[in-house]
Amino acid sequence: MSEVLGSLLVLDGHLRHAIDIVRSVGRRGFAVDIVSAKPRPPAGYSRYVRDSFLFDFGASLPSEGLKVVRGLVESRGYDVVLAAGLDGTGCLARSRRELELLTRVVAASPEAFCTAEDKHATSILAESIGIAVPRTLAPEIVDELAECAAWVYPVVVKARGGQGRFAYANSFEELHRVYRGIAEQSGAVGAEADALPLVQEYIAGTGHGYFALCDHGRVLASFMHERVREVPPSGGPSSMARSFTDPALEDAGKRVLGALDWSGVAMVEFKRETSSGRYVLIEVNPKFWGSLGLAIAAGVDFPWLMVQLALKGTVEAPAGYRDTAYQWLSMDIAHSIAVHRPFLWLRDVVRGVPNDFRLGDPRPNLALLAQGALDVARGRRRVNLAGPSTGRPGPEGRSTTS
Q1: CATH numeric code, 6-105
Q2: Could you report the per-residue pLDDT of 158-197, keeping only the tens digit for each?
Q3: Do 295 and 223 form a contact (C-beta atoms < 8 A)?
Q4: Which pTM does this prediction carry?
Q5: Fold (CATH) for 135-201
Q6: CATH code that applies to domain 205-378
C-alpha cells in the first residue's frame, strides 16, 4: 500500500467474504483491521490486513460487543466500522447511536434488523405488501406440527433466526425427528414460542438473489445473480454463480427493502418457482453475502460504496453491471468432488472464468484451501447434505452465499 487514506475496522472477519471486503477497501489505500470469532481467519492472511483481534459477537452479550467495538475505535481511531456477518451487523444496528458519536457506520435500525433477521417476521411483512412467500407454519407448541400431516412433502424446517440451521423432511414421520434436531441446534428446546423453528413448503425452482445498498429504504446500488453450482449440491453456498437481470426480481427486492426502511447492505433471497415463474421470497440476509465477490467482479463494489456512504453520505454507483460468471475455487473444488467430477472446477479456470484467487494476495485463498481440507479430515457434514429425497434442487433456509 502507498499513502494511507484512512482506517477501517471489519467485524466478523472469520467469514469467507470478509476477504472481499478487506481487498476492496485495502487496495484503495485504507488500513484495515479485523475482529474475528475464530483464530487464524483466512482474511487475516491478506496483505491488506494490519491487525486481527479475537472476539465472538454471536457468543457474547450485546453490551460486551459494544464495549469491544467502542474500545477499539477509541484506541485506534477508525474512520469507518463495517461488519461482514450477521452477528457484527446486529451489533452495529443495536449500537448505531452510541457508535455514531465516535466513528462512521451505516446500519439499519434495531427494529428493521430484528424483522429482517426473523424469517417469520420477514414472511409476514412480505405478504403484507403482496410478495409471494412459501406456506409457513410457526408453531407456538410442538404439538401444532400435526397441522403438517396433510402437506405435500418434502418440507423445509428452519430456525427463525441465525444462519445455516435448516433441514429437509421427506415425510410427516421424518418431520418430527428433523424438527427436534433443528430446535436443539437453535437452542429452542423448551424456549418461548417465538424461538421455535418454522416449517415451510418446499419451493421447486432456481435460487436468485437481489443485493442492494440502501439508505432508509432507498436503493443506491443493486445487483442480481443466479446460482450455477452449490456446496453441497443439494443446496447451500454458491461455488459458482453468474450475474442476472430481471425487472420482476428487482421490483420484488426493492419492495421488501423499502418496506423494511433498510439502511446498509442486504441480500433478498428468492426462488423462481418452476411451475409458475413467480419469485417466492425465501428470506432476507441482512448483511454482506457470501457471493459478494461476483458483484465486485461485475462492477458493483458494495464494500467501497458502503465506505463512500459512511464517509460522504453519497455514493458514486455504477449505472449497470457486467454479465459475468464467478467461481470460488475452494468451494468449487468441493462441489466437483461431491458430484464425482473432480476436475469440473478446472474446466472453468482454463476457460478464464473470473475467480477469487488473487496473485497479488494469494495467502487468504491458500488458507481457505487448508481450512477446507481440515473440515473434510474432521468429517464435518451439513445437516441438509442429503437434500430432499425427490432430488429436487435446493436451497432453502439461510444460505451463506449469502
Answers
A1: 3.40.50.20
A2: 999 887 688 999 999 999 999 999 998 877 555 455 589 9
A3: yes
A4: 0.88
A5: Dna Ligase; domain 1 (3.30.1490)
A6: 3.30.470.20
